Amino acid sequence: MIVRRAVRRSTPRPELRRAVRYFLCLNALAIIGVAVAVSLASVHLAREQAVHFAEHSARGMAEWLISPHCTPRLRAGDPAALRALDEAVRARMRDGSVVRVKVWSVDGRVLYSDQAELIGRRYELAAEDRALAGTNRVTAAISELDRAEHEYEQQVERLVEVYLSLSGTDGEPVLFEAYFPADRLEDDARYIGWRLAPLALLAIVVLQLFQLPLALALARRLDHAHRERGRLLEHAIAASELERRRIARDLHDEVIQDLAGVGYSLGAVELHLSGGGERLRETVRRLSATVQRDVRALRRAMVDIHPPDLSVTRLPTALNELAEPMRATGKVCHVQVVETSELPVNVRQLLYRSAREALRNIDKHAHADRIDLTVETFGDQVRLTVDDNGVGFDAADPPQPDHLGMRLLGEAVREVRGTLSVTSAPGVGTVVTVVLPLDDSGQQRRWVPWRR
What we know:
Elements: E1 2-3, H1 14-66, H2 72-75, H3 79-93, E2 100-104, E3 110-113, H4 127-130, E4 138-143, E5 159-167, E6 173-181, H5 182-272, H6 278-305, H7 315-328, E7 332-338, H8 345-366, E8 370-378, E9 381-388, H9 404-415, E10 419-425, E11 429-437
Parallel strand pairs: 1-7, 7-8
Antiparallel strand pairs: 2-3, 2-6, 4-5, 5-6, 8-9, 9-11, 10-11
Transmembrane segments: 20-43
Organism: Micromonospora cremea
Membrane topology: Multi-pass membrane protein
């Protein structure tokens, strides 16, 4: 029975589109990854720049504002000198960019602070801070605010603490300490980072746009090479098919015909033997049977060597011809096939080969008396099912004989991205299922005639 059903035609050149989509997806992931990395790096760089800016601001404040007021009178605690420095410092702090200012003697005494209660107190300076005295080095870091001198800065959560050394009017070194709000510096860092990130991303996008035509050209070249390889493979297959056809023709026209003639001659010889040659007639009959058996075997081999041309012969007809030998032995072989004229030739050929191998195994091993062979399409796939009611076998302990034909068939099915499965159980028969794709991704071989 033939069931007609529409088969969707495959779309051309999906490999190229997949390669381009793959390239674009990778580019998108690369842009996202680089965007995150650039943003983090920009913020980090901007934070470093902000801390560097704090160092630069502290140095400028120390040289131009603090140093001229560091006189011997300030060291002695003269109120007028302290007041003059305080007025200059508070004018600088009015914009909120500086939170606290301290001027230290090398031995740890606070010579001046905008927090007046700290003036004159002594604290233990850290070794790295004392080491700055008389040098041009500057240290800056987020302060932990965990020392005794920080009792008036506790209300502020995070501060950038900057230490440096400067010289007073008398040449004696003093230490200058300034506190900058960390949140403000980080806001500046984020602002700088967000200004840098778009530039970096724009450069990446422009680079990708320049790469896209190159990628398309490479994809087209690969596609062209793939098609050339396919054409070479098709010609090789066509040449192999011609050679197989020549061998089949030679078998049919010469060897099989000669053996058939020998069989007929042996039959004639048997008829003309005299009655006393019973033993000789039995020998002739055996020879005639052997020749006829060999002729049938050669005819089967000829069909195997040169199967029907499915670009001309319809698949249902070819499958029914495969089933005829099974029916001739009394088996019920039911064939149901969809209208396959629109299936690619290579798919029809592989379906035929799969059905032939399954029927051959049934004939040799299954001892079945009923076989159901079905070909049907669903979506963008076609499925062949060969179901028998034979003895079956345990899937956990498959038969030991070497099923080379099934292994070769499995490789051919996998080459076109299809699947081959065999399910069985003792006493319930065996089901062989072959599923093949109908899109171009699975059609690695498309038949073309060989032309000289």
